[in-house]
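Q: For a teaching session next week I want to show students how multiple molecules come together into a single three-dimensional assembly. I've collected the sequence lines for a complex. Could you give me the predicted structure tokens for the whole thing so I can convert them for display?
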Amino acid sequence: MDPADIVKFFLILATLTALSFSGLWFIKRRSSFLARTSATNLFSACLLFYAWVFPISYQAIFDRSPPAYKPFDDVHNLGGLFARSQTNVAFHYIQIQLEDDPAWIDLPEEGKYSSLVATGYTKRLPWLLVFIDVAEWRGQKAFAYRQRDEVAKWIAARHQKLNPGAAAVTAVRFLYGWQLFSHHLPPPEGRFRVPPLASLEPENFRVLSQHPLGSVNVEAKL
Amino acid sequence: MTPSLAKPATRFLDFVFEPVDPIRLDMLRWGLAFSYLLYLCLWPESYREWLSVEGFHYTRDVAVAGHSFYFSPLPVAAVPWFLTVFMGSLFSIICGWQTRLMTWICFACTFYLYEMEPVTMFTLNKLYLVAFAIFCLVPGTQRVMTAGGVMAWRQSAWPLRILQTTFIIHYFCAGVCKVWPGDWLTNPDVLWSQSQGLYATDAAAFMLRHLPRWAWTVLQYFALVFELAVPFLFLWRRLVPLGIVLNLLLQLGIALMMYKLIYFGMQIVFFSLAFVDASTLRHITGWLRRTVPGVRSWTLRTS
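A: Of course. Below is the structure for the complete assembly, covering every listed component.
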């Protein structure tokens, strides 16, 4: 985010707050309760109105943040979850290639790389990959690739730390798989679990990106 | 201001700044601190991945868009210290000890988390962020003589009004999004499809196997009608008890079917305390103090 945008936001917020505060101070005798409100109190109320109530209301009505509020776009976006039906559930797989072995293998002991359940039954690392996909769908392909590249380098470095002396990771790839829902298919037998990649039909997964790692890359900091 | 506009505007300002019983705000702060602490206690094995350089974190160059500040993760050795301060501040708020100072500490920690790791905390953290920002600026209480000639604590209503508005906008917008651009009105299978996937619990799977298709449609329209009716249910005083019960049922249903959303549900249920009649809350806290051992001494301390 451009620091100039953040400065602009705070300047506009300060101006709106100061104007409203002055206006309310000017008319405060018209309301008996307002007349008894201290200046600090009144200022805080104006500040929170423009920092929170105004942008969330604006975003709710126009489905975008007010122009100057872009730096805090995400904070002010409240609604919109689970708004549409879904025809499938999507999940991610991480595979690695080891030195002297061209085969792609699933990341062994994935829990040692990410054990935090971020949302639903999804661990933090796959959940980060979902956000990268969103950036890609919004047209930020190069940015998404760079984000995945950072994840790939970190996985390689973590692998080396967890398995000292073992074959190094020479490449990482990210795959995207999905399972369809239908009334014609049998309902789930239990809670959600990511199915093994081998159980998916070839048309139900694809490679998102592949990241070859040189020896220099593997030295990424942990 | 013209006379025709003056009266409604004055009534609105009176409504926003009128002195009210502080118990609703006290209980809301207590409830949010409690649910937040519970939520944080969930992740004891994952703190280091979440907060420290041991887990994956983006560099400044590719940090998640939409977040203005880049804060580095903590060194591994600093994690216990951070958690002690953060969880300690929440515990202090629950106990009513140094509430204002602890609220500022809690807000600072939440802001750090929100900007350092925006992906993991998601919506839950956003509501805590704003709620604790409001609690930081809450005006002090004053002892005043009420109309009935009784001395009572009073506080300007504006922080409560902001939190009430947040609750209503949050729910109502969720309902509107489901109607448009969502397809909850036109597709009777939305809830059925949402109950599968990443969040689906064993209970959801059981229901998917045994509930007829029409039952999912009924539940779907119940949820939609409730969300759209929230402004009426919570702004019309006589309907507030019904609103609170329906909110509780909806959040219980979500908690049952969607893994870990119980913490979001708890947060929303505590938010609805902002609408409960102050005298009812005084009765409840009074009864708790009298009957539950320990409560009198260190919890539910209200103004």
